[in-house]
Amino acid sequence: MFESEIYKEKEMKTKVVSVEKSSFKSVGVGEEKRFETKELIGLELMYNNFLIHQSAIKIS
Predict the structure, then answer these.
(1) Is 24 in contact with 34 (CB distance < 8 Å)?
(2) Which domain holds residue 33?
(3) Model confidence at 60: pLDDT above 60
(4) How far is the C-alpha of 43 from the C-alpha of 36, rounded, in Å?
(5) Full-prediction pTM beyond 0.85?
(6) CA distance linking residue 21 with residue 8, whole number of Å
(7) Rounded CA gap, 25 and 47, in Å?
(8) In the chain, % of residues over pLDDT 70
(9) How many domains does the chain have?
(10) pLDDT tens digits, 27-50
(11) Would you say 50 and 36 are in contact if contact means Cβ atoms under 8 Å apart?
(12) Mean pLDDT of the region 2-27
């Protein structure tokens, strides 16, 4: 990875951690935490307080 790409990834992860999330029961097991801002949209799948999956897309 190029240094600028690493910086962009770290910046995006920082935003995902700090954004307010809404919780929903997942279709299977665990809990979905969804978020949407002017810049990002995504979700996290949590099970027993462990992050199983995280997806975020930059929309602006």
Answers:
(1) yes
(2) 3-58
(3) yes
(4) 9
(5) no
(6) 21
(7) 11
(8) 97
(9) 1
(10) 999 999 999 999 999 999 999 999
(11) no
(12) 86
Pick from 33, 2, 4, 5: nearest CA to 19 = 33
DSSP-derived secondary structure for the chain: --HHHHHHHHHHHHHHHHS--EEEE-SSSSEEEEEE-SSEEEEEEEETTEEEEEEEEE--
Cα 36 from chain centroid (whole Å): 9
Q: How is residue 16 written in tokens?
A: 């995902």
The DSSP-derived string for 12-26 is HHHHHHHS--EEEE-
Q: Report the residue count for the chain.
A: 60
Q: Which token pair is 54? A: 């995280």
Cross-strand partners of 35:
42
CB 22 within 8 A of CB 37: no
